[in-house]
Write a sequence for this structure.
């Protein structure tokens, strides 16, 4: 008796003759790759064993020498180089652009964090405030504050301004 074949199933066809050849080629490639991986693993194990043997022959590792101490002279040189990297020409140009009658600049200093400190003499407190307002107009500064206004011993007013640079200016 034969097995019934329902009419709604597709007839089963035999695989293409080259399918067996392709399958055999794929198995050959996989077997060669597996063999090479096994050989690479064995070579890695031998290399690690050689490194361990050489390390045990050398003895314990020598401690690294301590880095040279940070002396005050080296620190002073680093600070001086950092000061030289500042955009002094832009700072001086910004200060020179402040044209307020009677204002005389006495000191200019840029702190470690980049804040500019200006000290000056003015005939009156309004001139000192006008100098601060004139410096605020420059796009180099994010903020300009009057830090101090004092009466000068010889008459007039002595004042100090602190200007914070725009982010990324230096």
């Amino acid at each position: 008796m034969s097995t019934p074949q329902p009419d709604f199933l597709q007839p089963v066809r035999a695989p293409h003759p080259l399918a067996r050849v392709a399958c055999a080629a794929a198995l050959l490639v996989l077997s060669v790759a597996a063999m090479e991986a096994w050989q690479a693993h064995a070579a890695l194990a031998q290399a690690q064993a050689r490194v361990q043997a050489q390390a045990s022959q050398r003895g314990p590792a020598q401690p690294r020498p301590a880095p040279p101490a940070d002396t005050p002279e080296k620190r002073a040189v680093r600070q001086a180089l950092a000061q030289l990297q500042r955009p002094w020409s832009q700072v001086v140009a910004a200060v020179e652009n402040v044209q307020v009658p009677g204002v005389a600049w006495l000191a200019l200093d840029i702190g470690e964090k980049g804040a500019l400190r200006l000290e000056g003499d003015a005939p009156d407190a309004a001139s000192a405030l006008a100098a601060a307002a004139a410096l605020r107009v420059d796009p180099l500064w994010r903020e300009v504050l009057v830090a101090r206004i004092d009466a000068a011993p010889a008459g007039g007013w002595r004042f100090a301004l602190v200007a914070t640079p725009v982010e990324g200016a230096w």
About this structure: The two ends are 97 Å apart (CA to CA). The chain has a mean pLDDT of 87. Residues 137 and 148 are 20 Å apart (CA to CA). Helices lie at 17-58, 72-84, 88-96, 125-136.
